[in-house]
Amino acid sequence: VAVSLVAASLTGSRSFHNPHPHPFVRAGAWCSLGRTGRMGRNGVSHTTESHTMKTAVVSSLITACLTGSVAHAADLLVPKQFPTIQSAIDSATHGDRVLVSPGTYHEQVNLSGKGIQLIGVGGAAVTALDGDNTRTVIVGNGEPDTCLVQGFTIQNGRDYGASNGGGVRISNSSVRFDSCRFVGNRAEAPAFWGGGAWRSEYGNPRVSQCTFVGNTSGWGIAGIYHYLGGGIQVIDCVFSDNPSINGQCIHIQTEGGNITAEIRGNTFRRCEANGALGEGFFPVFLFNPSGGN
Fold it and tell me: What strands, in cross-sheet order, belong to the sheet with 148-150?
């Protein structure tokens, strides 16, 4: 983009806005590069006397207008640069990528409200986050929709308490999960509204092209449970063999407020009730006991 912009400026008299100012250019100034070598609308003007002088001035303007204080996203490598995924996330800032090499990582991952990309570079078949049947695997609060988790198997998560999620537990988060596998995660009783693989409150998370296999719930929902408000998208996912006491794969519930849900292109297999609430198969269950939409 910078190369095209410079070429256009040098061959004509077009202007472009500089949102990242150089120390010698006022913030938000308009920079104009043309055959006269002038900088307009920022209180600075240069008059050229020769071709050599003109070239020098234009070069200065290019530097001033294009270099500025532009922040570049970084790639943080696990385990090459950081021994754990969490240590990389702790060091990351918005826009960075945490790139995880193949392997099984026995740790809880906290997304920490950051707009980062957490990527298993070899894909879910060879990169796993393991809860060791003692903890939720991924937690988060307040992540923007620029936060992405991609290419992991999220396995052996276990959560206890009144409202829990074995694989993922997030709040006010708009994180996107793409091309992940949720395997063998469990929400333990007495969690009536726990999600074996996933529990989210508020926010607008998106789950796409993910697979849910062998997740269970001691009382509530084996797959995805979204609660209270915001919205959720579940698109092109596969749910297979996720038993629970009420046979629900996806449960969306509000308490009188509004939730926007997009559930499409999903496949459900053998996600059946296995307990006191009877027998049945309820792939998607929408529940609003107090009114609302």
Answer: 75-78, 97-100, 117-120, 148-150, 176-178, 206-208, 230-235, 259-264
